[in-house]
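Title: Request for sanity check on DUF4440 domain-containing protein prediction

Description:
We are preparing a figure and want to confirm that the structure record we downloaded matches what your pipeline produces today. Could someone re-run it with the sequence below and paste the raw structure tokens into this thread? We only need the token string, no images.
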Amino acid sequence: MPQAQSCVSWAGYDSVDAVFADSELVVRGTVTPTRKTTQLFGYDAAVHTVAVREVLKGDATAGTALPVASTPVTCSGDKVYPEGDPLDVSGEVVLFITRDESGVWRTLTPFEGVHRDPQL
């Protein structure tokens, strides 16, 4: 059975401050890749586990593990992440997160969700 997919036009941001303002949750931590997926916008989005070291904005607890989906690039053919999964990172990062309508935590956009400079 065919599955409906959405084409999303993602907002562009001029600064990290604007990304921060639009995020429901901003955390500093490390990401562990998993083989889990969830449906976002009709695509199989990868879900990673984030070990939260520090909460910079929002309601989360440092020291916990938080499942976060990597928001897919939509309308890009067969590749969900044409440039690679942005949550497939090593080391400490700052994550800009929002909750979708089904309650899944996900990166703010496919392009604005992971900041590799932990000194933010």
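Thanks, this matches our download. The CA atoms of residues 75 and 100 lie 19 Å apart.
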